[in-house]
Amino acid sequence: MSSGERGESSVGRQHRLWERLVGDDGPVGTNLTLVAALIALALVAPLAWLAVEAADLGWEAVDLTTQATTIEVLVRSVALVAVVTGASIVLGVGMAVLTVQGDIPFRRFWTVLCAVPLAMPSYLGAFAAISAFGPRGALSHVLDPVGLSMPTIYGFGGAALVLTLYTYPYVFLTTRASLLSLDASLVEAARTLDCSRWEAFRRVTLPQILPGVAAGALLVALYTLADFGTPNFMRVQVFTQFIYARYTGFMRPYAVLLSLQLVAVTAVILAVESRIGADEEGAYESRGNRGAVELGLGKWRYPALLVPAAVFLAAIALPVWIFVLWLTQGGPGYQTGGLAFSWSYAENSVKVALMAAGASVLVALPVALRSAASDSWLARFADRLTYVGYAVPGIVLGIALIRFSLEVVPAVYKTLPLLVFAYVVRFVPQAVGSIRTSTQQVDGRLTEASRVLGRSRLGTFRSVTLPLIGPGVAAGAALVFLTTMKELPATLLLRPTGFGHTLVTYIWRVREAGLYGKAAVPALVLVAVSALSMAVILAGGER
Amino acid sequence: MTKDTRFGRRQLLKTVAAGSTAAIAGCSLSPGGNGTDTAAENGSDGGDGGSQVPGEIPDLSAFRGSGAILEGRPAPGGTSIRDLPSLSGSLNVYIGGGEGGIYDQFMDLLEEFYDDFSVSSNAAPSSSHAQTIVEEAEAGETRADVFWSIDASSLGFVADEGAYEPLGEEVVEPVPSRFTGEDNAWVGVAGRARAVPYNTNEVSEDDVPNSVMDFPEADFAGSMGWAPTYGAFKSFVTAMRLIEGDDATRQWLESMKSAGTERFPNEFVISSQVADGALQAGFANHYYAMRVKNQRDDPPIDLAFTEGDAGALVNIAGTLKVQGTGKGDLVDTFVRHLLSAEAQEFFATRSFAYPMIPDVEPVGGLPTIDELSPPDIDLSELSNLGPTLELMQEAGVSG
Question: Which 3 state secondary structure label does DSSP give A154?
Fold first, then answer.
């Protein structure tokens, strides 16, 4: 501490501390920050029930945590997260640069192609991959007669591949948004100053898009950590599968303890990301956007398009082909009656997903606005806190919410509001991220002008900020909608009695019963509806 | 073999003559039937089964499945639904996943027969339901009247935690005591035997050891499949632990693993691969092989059963009356319907389950439960899964 500060009065010191904590933009700003923090706390509060339950274990908890098998599974999970995140960054950034800056034909078409794998639940992708590539799978029937054999799809590599295919669009979308708002004049200046194309990318473009890349990578990392279906199908024992086996084996306190470890890993990932993403000033803000950079690809123009084409074939065309095979040939399961599909399941899915999207936007707005507007520690903390729920596996959240609601608010137990709350806890960070990013891009001078011209704070928000961040809000809502449509474990545990199936619980039901053919129609409907919501997300990028 | 006069010779002839039409009737009867998960959604495909009059209990043919495997099957004995008190009111059923689809279909039928009876079924994994039921009971917030589990371990768990009400004596009376819980806490409604599906081109029945513990030394040991993440497999390992002890079980798992036993996500895949010849044999519940048989034209697959050990475990899907239901009598009558001649025939012929009442025979030449020699263990003890998971993990066969 410098000698000058030492002379400061204690009141002054306290005031400075307070400023750092909650912000320096007046009482209204402070109150909003506190509201944001309270919202974030309310979202993660039910998870405290996990700690209560794990405490039942006493000292045994320490033994279980440090067991060799627990450590082994932990290391494998972290390795999977690292590989999938790394691969998603390479693929996502590459495709974003190609579709935003490359001089390719039908730009919009390729953009959609790159983003649409997000519409497919990764476990369906994994299942289709096994059906196609697995021993005696659909593709081996084609290849065997030619004397070719399939490399095994099972294991760590297969799980990493499938997860990358279905999560890289997160990086693609966030990077694309950053690239679109990149000031082309900066890159031109660098090129004029004799920087090579690569150097200009590394020294000008990359620092500008890094926070965007980091935001997408964070979602990829947390999705991978919380995913159960894909590693399970691929026979890789990761944390979620370990937890699930213990939960279904009536060892709930142990399962809960493991979940807390998962939350701890999440905290580490969040800390890492906030070091990269912290320097957001100027990154998204682009005051003089002079249009996107054009990247001349020359003779690589068409070969480069093979990558998104291949990704689309593997991630979407292949599963759809498998579903259609099931539809026409009845699938690998057996045929019995019962469990007929009903369109009401699709209605249920859309209904809860819309409610989750709407609620998420309401919750995310204050958190994201404060996080974008204030440098305070509390505003940033509230933002980060919402991400915890995204990494908590649905089954764990389900357990926590059952216990929480039964003991604290029985009136909401197994009601629609509780189910929607679960979705908000799980998926709101996607809306927070999207809204925060678009808010940061709003030119501060516009809102200042509005205030100077006598508009109230609320009036300014309504007439200036909101129209500008509208696309970001819509994209956030669409992301929540999309992921809610795909959610399974929390839905199974928390849906109200008599509510009926959603598309995904129905797919689960018929798959469990071995009636794969019946999974085809709902799977196709799910992908179609989700793909429609992709349009909203992509429209947000085009301004 | 007991023949019940209610399904006399004429009726039987009619059934056989009906042949393929039985299948059609069976299908269209599933009806209103898309309401798998709730009673509320009724019938887009709602044929009412040709001659069947809504509100009346139809002939046996409406309950029977179809397929060559059922040819010449005798009529079932036991109590007919027609002789049971009728159902009226509504029930909430927590139903387990997996084979539960066939049970939903049967509940749809009951709704067809009884105008003022409705079932709202909620599907989730059995063990998940079991834990939810215990928590609800502790909080005094019971939501389910009936727990219909596809595994005895989940029933045992709820019973151990005391979150049940005993079923009426007349409900459990027709079922052998090995398939009922202590204090009438639960009753089995469909049986499933552990079995060894083997490829008849590759393996002769004599080569299959009588003791499951001898499998690591069997000729075909290098070409077998198992599904360690599947609940039935874990119950099988638990049974082995209870019979042979932890060390022998760990040793067995390690030996089978090092012999090259291949991992599969479920036991239907194992049975299919055995029929394909990709595997010589496997560990699976008996009905998967029956399904393969019923679906293909004379596939080279058959079932072997071990004797008196975990390999011959007969587990059950069963029902339990949830504590605090307030509809105890209705639950009793409902469960009696599940143990009726028609219901047992339905489960036996459509899902190839072992009937729980002695007067209904298992399908397709399966040995009866008396001919099998299942191990003498208390099915409720299968809920002691913790040590099983630890042991599987130690042996490198993670569940």
Answer: coil
CATH code, domain with B247 = 3.40.190.10
Q: Note whether A370 and A379 are within 8 A (CB).
A: yes
For B349, nearest residue in chain A (alpha carbons): A336
| Same domain? B96 vs B245 | no
Residue of B30, B34, B94, B293 to mutate, interface with A, max A Cβ within 10 Å:
B34
% of chain B beyond a pLDDT of 70: 86
Portion 294-353 of B in contact with A at CB < 8 A: 294-295, 350-351
Nearest residue, CB atoms, A237 vs list B33, B394, B398: B398
Same domain, B232 and B262: yes
Q: B276 vs A501: CB contact, 8 Å cut-off?
A: no
Does B81 reside within a domain? yes
In angstroms, the CA B79 to CA A136 distance is 46
Which of B267, B65, B100, B48 shows the shortest CA–CA distance to A501?
A: B100
Among candidate residues A36, A41, A43, the one with its CA nearest the CA of residue A420: A43
Average pLDDT over residues B286-296: 87
Q: Rounded CA gap, A493 and A402, in Å?
A: 8
pLDDT the model gives residue A55: 82
Q: Does the residue B361 lie in any domain? A: no
Query: Is B276 domain-assigned?
Result: yes
Pair B257, B307 in one domain:
yes
Please calculate the CA angle A209-A214-A216 and round it to the nearest 5 degrees: 100
CA distance A476 to chain B (A): 30
Q: Within the 382-421 window of chain A, which residues sit less than 8 Å (CB to CB) from chain B?
A: 402-403, 406-407, 410, 413-414
Between the alpha carbon of residue B5 and those of residues A298, B17, B61, B79, B167, the distances in Å are 87, 19, 16, 11, 29
How many domains is chain B partitioned into structurally?
2
The answer to whether residues B21 and B160 belong to one domain is yes
Distance between A333 CA and the closest CA of chain B, angstroms: 8
Residue B130 and residue B26 in one domain: yes
Distance from CA of A48 to the nearest CA of B (A): 17
B35 and B74 belong to one structural domain: yes
Do B180 and B111 share a structural domain?
yes
Look at residue B357 and tell me if it is in a domain: no
For residue A234 the two structure tokens come to 């691929």
Q: Which domains does chain A have, with CATH numbers?
A: 26-284+308-541 (1.10.3720.10)
Block mean pLDDT (10 aa), chain A, length 543: 52 73 71 89 87 81 80 92 96 93 87 91 87 69 59 84 95 88 76 80 83 90 90 86 87 86 87 68 44 69 88 92 82 61 93 97 92 85 89 86 90 95 94 87 82 85 86 90 92 89 90 80 91 80 50
Pick from A352, A361, A376, A355: which is nearest to A432 by CA?
Answer: A361
Q: What is the pLDDT of residues B53-112, one digit of tens each?
A: 556 778 888 888 877 777 778 888 889 999 999 999 999 999 997 765 788 889 989 999
Is A342 in the B-facing interface, judged by CB distances under 8 Å? yes
Q: Domain containing B28: what range?
A: 5-191+316-350
ipTM higher than the 0.85 cut: no
Residues B72 and B206 in one domain: no
